[in-house]
Amino acid sequence: xxxxxxxxxxxxxxxxxxxxxxxxxxxxxxxxxxxxxxxxxxxxxxxxxxxxxxxxxxxxxxxxxxxxxxxxxxxxxxxxxxxxxxxxxxxxxxxxxxxxxxxxxxxxxxxxxxxxxxxxxxxxxxxxxxxxxxxxxxxxxxxxxxxxxxxxxxxxxxxxxxxxxxxxxxxxxxxxxxxxxxxxxxxxxxxxxxxxxxxxxxxxxxxxxxxxxxxxxxxxxxxxxxxxxxxxxxxxxxxxxxxxxxxxxxxxxxxxxxxxxxxxxxxxxxxxxxxxxxxxxxxxxxxxxxxxxxxxxxxxx
Length: 301
Fold this sequence. Notes:
By secondary structure, the protein is α/β, with parallel strands linked by helices. Helix content is 47%, strand content 12%. The chain has 12 helices and 8 strands. It has an 8-stranded parallel barrel with strand order 1-2-3-4-5-6-7-8, surrounded by 5 helices. Strand 2 (47-50), helix 2 (62-76) and strand 3 form a beta-alpha-beta unit.
């Protein structure tokens, strides 16, 4: 039931905001990243987003970010797009990361609003345009004001849509009215960055999702979109509702999604490893609760 005249999503529909696997000593685990990436694609992910919030981008170096792109791209080839997170609080640094990601083989860029400095909208627009001009890669803007302190206002998004390489938005603004306003005025592909909005946003013309929960349940989450596309909206709603308990436990129960995803990946025998400080691992009680919710979700999906 996709909109008839809407173009195909530029990075696929079901995207995983992939964790960055680390070894027990905290070093980057490139072999683990390749194995996890291959597993996620085999389980139905149509795109992988690296070095975002879930990927612990604030605690990885520029060299580690580039190495991660190269390793994951080697593992998945041309089967799915690999989108590299390059956003920082510094325009110049973000430009450098964008160039590095392109050289490393990324298929697209994820660019978050500069955080802490809270630039006004005209400065924010100029920042995104400079990044989009810095490489030949398509850009997904990342609107997450709860973390950055700055909203990308709808009017700003509408203006930015005129740039030929700004093609998508990862939406974590919790504002469905604004999302529909931008969808109606532009050709931007809107991805739900909050799993509870995956189906509602898709139903009004969104492109799909970029999901932390997809690290552990990619096939079950993709089934929401598949059911909707098949015309079975009741089944899509059922699957979305079944996901809610796991989504809440992973994303809205006091622990960051990176922590909960890595706890579950470890329990499932998949690469993930420890988190880097200042994050701390989930305790045994929390990890046990996550596994119980996960098992219930996948058993009924």
